[in-house]
Amino acid sequence: MPIFPRCARRALALCLALFAAAGAAHAEWPERPIKLIVPYVAGSGPDVVLRPIADALGRELGQPVIVDNRGGAGGIVGTQQLAAAAPDGYTIGFGNLVTLAINKSMYSKLSYDPQRSLAPISLAISNALVLIARNDFPASNVQELVEYARKHPGKVSVGSLGVGSSAHLAGEMLKSETGTVMLHVPYKSGQQAVGDIAGGQLDVMIDNVAGVLPFIRSGQVKVLGATSLARVPVLPDVPTVDESAVRGFEVVSWGGIVAPAGTPRPVIDRLNAAVAKALRDPAVLKLNETLSVDATPSTPEQFASLIASEIPRWGAMVRRSGASAD
């Protein structure tokens, strides 16, 4: 048996003690409420879907999970704050197609790196977007919208959640694919945009189903099409862009839970397991069914792989459409 110098034995004992203390700290986590940063305003589509998930997540972890809305700049404001937070598991956040993939190409100087600044925990949701219009707009489907836009170049106003949002890019893709010229009108929130659609100040807009479904059901706006390849279950009579105007057209938004880079792996694993259970909560399942949101958890590695594949895919789409936030 090798004989170590006394100083080496003391150093080894100290290291073992530190590892034991760290393990104990992770085992005790969480000991206080957890903040979930949502980089969009209260009442937005992501906010509506995430609140019951946060409640269920809190029940699974034994500590409240408090939603902290930090909207602005296409999700950059809240995501930057998340990336800068202490990597201790007490600040987590929502990352989606925009903040984790599109922004990488939309902004030449992004204040965070989607892959280096954040640690993926689990994919949580995915959903289609829909194209809605003011009730007196002279088109009842996407093909009629395209025909009208071709006859009136630059006259159709298209609202979105903001420059660089999935709705903005979907609109740019539609214009590029159909050779039409429409005026993009960015808003600070989806609620403002859909409010102007309902009021007749804006012609059309693209948004996720969760954000506009109440307006569709109340008859305040009309829906022209869906951006998924398959029809939206809660809107079965609404044709997709693929079947009515542009073959192969598909924009599906996704999102999940992320943490600041450097968050300990035991905490990541605990959160991952809790998210999977939270997505099976009856209240979460009921809301997701109502809004046609698919809730499928993943491992951290699967989520990281999705992000890695989506960044170049959407980068190519951004360049093709000519969209830019700079």
From TrEMBL:
Keywords in alphabetical order: Signal
Domain of life: Bacteria
Keyword Aminoacyl-tRNA synthetase carried by entry: no
Record-linked Pfam families: TctC
Gene3D superfamilies according to UniProt: Bordetella uptake gene, domain 1 (3.40.190.150), Periplasmic binding protein-like II (3.40.190.10)
Position of the signal peptide: 1-27
InterPro entries: BUG (IPR005064), Bug_dom1 (IPR042100)
Acetylation as UniProt keyword: no
Family: Belongs to the UPF0065 (bug) family.
PANTHER family noted in UniProt: BLR1237 PROTEIN (PTHR42928:SF5), TRICARBOXYLATE-BINDING PROTEIN (PTHR42928)
Name assigned to this protein: Tripartite tricarboxylate transporter substrate binding protein
The organism's taxonomic lineage, starting at the top: Bacteria, Pseudomonadati, Pseudomonadota, Betaproteobacteria, Burkholderiales
